[in-house]
Design goal:
The complex is a heterodimer. By secondary structure, chain A is mostly beta strands. Chain A has no helices and 8 strands. In chain A, strands 1, 2, 3, 4, 5, 6, 7 and 8 form an 8-stranded mixed β-sheet that branches. The longest helix of chain B is centred in the C-terminal third of the chain and has 75 residues, at about 220-290. Classes of the chains: A mainly beta, B alpha/beta. The interface of A and B includes residues 12, 13, 38 and 81 of A. Chain A: Belongs to the ATPase epsilon chain family.
Chain lengths: ~80, ~290
């Protein structure tokens, strides 16, 4: 049971891995994405993604700006202009 | 007939030129690899963004209320040609090919009675275009102080373009750059960037798209993505251009090195011939002198 998570910037593919959950700061509120999430698209406010590798683990934060999230059958893809 | 000393001088001078061209060729080969890798790693983002734009475009009809970047200003009087060149020469016809493509387009537009303005990126396109269109250079974007043009530059160019566009300075923007096919082939390309050409709507994969939820609404997402799409396009063009420049430079310098080699060979033969002729004359003189005694 894992969610495939990809983080892509114009310069390169930053992450491509299987994680438990990602909490995304959407422009209309934070949302968490688990495996099997319904197809969904949203713009992202500048802020931090919280990546939970396993259930209950401490989240890893990735700061992004200019982001856009897409959830499809392949998992979660976050397009961000700047990371870090 | 040139004297021996002159010939020797010329051979040495060609040899040093060859050293330079050879060094530049090797530098270009190394940089090409890097530039190609950069262009490749930029592809996933561009592809994904284009996909998203495509699926959004399929859901939205362009109307007057659509964002200006998509719908246009409603006229096409003033055209802005964004011409991307490199800062350095020694790349064969790389820069002049791009300039030529831009010039042809400019003439064509002018023949249709449109106003043409230029936005120049990089140093090498300035002189030829300024000579021909002295009053139409709207802006020069300087990349001399950056080593590898990257996303920051693309962002700055895009922001300036959008600002000019919103100030009503132009109606349509075309981008000229060189598409990288291989080290031997670079294609000067003309692409319309503003208004953003509606991305081809991808055929909705049965069911999957129908239930996709959008937050905020489709229109708003599209409005937010348009400037990003523009930036990505410019970024892609910058990278393609960088790779093309190195490719063209490598080929041009390879030819130059070979030419220099041929020239050295020819001059050396000529040098040896004159040397032998001189020795023969000297011998003849000595023998003639000895016989006269």
């Amino acid at each position: 049971m894992a969610l495939h998570f990809e983080l892509v910037t114009p310069a390169k593919l930053v992450r491509s891995e299987d994680v438990h959950m990602v909490v995304v700061p959407g422009t209309e509120g934070e949302f968490g994405v688990l495996e099997g999430h319904a197809p969904f698209m949203s713009t992202i406010a500048d802020g931090a993604l919280k990546v939970y590798r396993t259930d209950g683990a401490a989240p890893e934060e990735i700061r992004i700006t200019g982001g856009f999230a897409e959830v499809g059958d392949k998992g979660l893809t976050v397009l961000a202009e700047h990371v870090g | 007939m040139a004297s021996l000393k002159e010939l020797k001088g010329r051979i040495n001078s060609v040899k040093s030129t060859q050293k330079i061209t050879k060094a530049k060729q090797m530098v270009a080969a190394a940089k090409l690899r890097k530039a190609q890798a950069a262009a490749e790693s930029a592809r996933p983002y561009a592809a994904r963004l284009a996909e998203v734009m495509g699926s959004l475009a399929g859901k939205i009809t362009v109307s007057e209320n659509s964002p200006k970047l998509l719908a246009g200003t409603g006229s096409d009087k003033v055209h802005l040609l964004v011409v991307m060149n490199s800062d350095k020469g020694l790349a064969g016809a790389f820069n002049s090919n791009i300039v030529k493509a831009a010039r042809i387009k400019a003439k064509e537009l002018e023949a249709q009675g449109k106003t043409v303005l230029f936005y120049l990126v990089g140093r090498k396109g300035r002189a030829p275009l300024r000579r021909e269109f002295p009053k139409q250079i709207a802006h020069l974007f300087d990349t001399t102080d950056v080593r590898d043009p990257g996303f920051d530059e693309a962002e700055r160019i895009a922001n300036e373009l959008v600002a000019l566009y919103e100030a009503g300075k132009f109606d349509v923007a075309h981008l000229f750059y060189s598409k990288f096919r291989s080290a031997l082939v670079q294609e000067p390309t003309d692409q319309q960037i503003i208004p953003v050409p509606a991305p081809k709507a991808v055929a909705a994969t049965a069911g999957a798209d129908a239930v996709t939820e959008y937050e905020p609404e489709e229109e708003e997402i599209l409005a937010a993505l348009l400037p990003r799409y523009l930036r990505t396009q410019l970024f892609g063009a910058l990278l393609e251009n960088a790779a093309s420049e190195q490719g063209a430079s490598m080929t041009a310098m390879d030819n130059a090195t070979r030419n220099a080699g041929d020239l050295i060979k020819k001059l050396t033969i000529q040098y040896n011939r004159s040397r032998q002729a001189a020795i023969t004359t000297e011998l003849v003189e000595i023998i003639a002198g000895a016989e006269a005694l």
